Amino acid sequence: MDEQAVRLGVHDLIAAYSDCIDDDRLEEWPDFFVDKCHYLITSRESHEAGYRHGIIYAASRGMLLDRVTSLRRVLMYEKHRYRHIVGQTRVSKIADGVAEAHSNFITVRIMHDGETNLFAVGRYLDRIDISTTPFRFVERLVILDSQKIDTLLVIPL
Amino acid sequence: MDEQAVRLGVHDLIAAYSDCIDDDRLEEWPDFFVDKCHYLITSRESHEAGYRHGIIYAASRGMLLDRVTSLRRVLMYEKHRYRHIVGQTRVSKIADGVAEAHSNFITVRIMHDGETNLFAVGRYLDRIDISTTPFRFVERLVILDSQKIDTLLVIPL
Amino acid sequence: MDEQAVRLGVHDLIAAYSDCIDDDRLEEWPDFFVDKCHYLITSRESHEAGYRHGIIYAASRGMLLDRVTSLRRVLMYEKHRYRHIVGQTRVSKIADGVAEAHSNFITVRIMHDGETNLFAVGRYLDRIDISTTPFRFVERLVILDSQKIDTLLVIPL
Fold first, then answer.
1. Nearest-CA distance from B102 to chain C in Å?
2. Is the ipTM of this complex over 0.90?
3. CA A18, C120, B150 angle in degrees (round to 5)?
């Protein structure tokens, strides 16, 4: 696969991921990851300090599935949705069937009553399995610029 | 035309459209559409409920021209401008000379006194005529995430 | 170099530039410019009126280096960082080893205490030297949509 095709596939994966969450199709969300994956939402400070834990953490696709289940059945929260705006993606490395990419994003939250506000801003640091189609995330680190967000974060970013 | 060229053309059309509005060159805005076009600004709730009406609606290029005329000559409103930030575009289908694409966007409104605020967030659902150059919109649905915007919406998105 | 490769390189330059600033690697910032460059942050009103001065101005890479030095050693300001979200880039012209491109952007500012707000919105008007690798800016005009920003602007955009 040539570099251009890889970039295009990475671009589409990242856009499809946002659409899935923004459309509230959370049951499909784990399918964007390989089985043995790593998903983490954390703050820039924690990430730079080298901590591997965070606000939301999953070390397998099964844990992502569990998260969706609890989100749908257990957690109590005011209904809301997101809209992701993802800036230009940089593919920094392609080797051994894995592409490394990162993108900045901004997430606007829309509450049930229509109230809209700038919810989160940060960057995605991705490692993507490009050896099979469709591409899937091996690792997606969501590095938030602010630590103020914790208690409000229910839906994945 | 190969797929890469189509994507590039779609990308450029969408960016040029935003520039036209943000630069206040509204007289050129109808030229981004084919004669028998469909332009609609609506809310996500209305769109998902299957309604075909909305906040702003046009079923032909002529109606778009009328809109610009009334906006320039008739409507009274405080002077303001937009800045569109359009995220990554997904081209989901290319068939029969028409490309289907969608993109998330955020629009910041700048009032005459310099006040700046997050005005609208949503997505574009586009059907684009790629059989002639330049590409033109056959259909552009502007699906807003919030319904709170109605009375303020004068300039097209 | 074919057009596709130029576009890709321009895209990567613009993304790398944002990363450099957002990561607070300001010492590397001048390296994104050729020696005899032009960097200007100004407002849309000033730009449209044809003024060549602005809020921040540099006519050489040396002046950019000076700016970083004073920013690190001299200027007193509350610690903060940016996150840039850059929309789709349009490459409008490629000629004589120079590509012209423009992109809309939004910059979110994150203060030391985690407070996050929409700081600046505007567009980049770029002239990029593509005759050598890596690509570098010959000119980067940062046209802000609002004039309200002046006193707060310390870090380059």
1. 13
2. no
3. 65
Tokens read off for A7: 């970039």
Residues of B within 8 A of A14 (CB-CB) are 88
Nearest CA-CA partner of B156 in B35, B45, B27 = B27
pLDDT in tens, A68-116: 999 888 777 788 999 999 998 999 999 999 999 999 999 999 988 888 8
- pLDDT value at residue C47: 92
> Is A106 within 8 Å of C83 when comparing Cβ atoms?
yes
Q: Which residues contact A11 (CB under 8 A, 6 or more apart)?
A: A89, B88
Which residues from A are below 8 Å from C when comparing CB atoms?
4, 7, 85, 87-90, 102, 104-106, 118, 121-123, 145-148
E strand intervals along chain B: 33-43, 56-58, 80-86, 90-95, 98-111, 116-129, 136-144
pLDDT in tens, C15-39: 999 999 999 999 999 999 999 999 9
A53 CA: distance to closest CA in chain C (Å)? 19
pLDDT bin (cut points 50, 70, 90) of residue A2 is confident
Angle between helix B3-22 and A3-22 (nearest 10) = 50
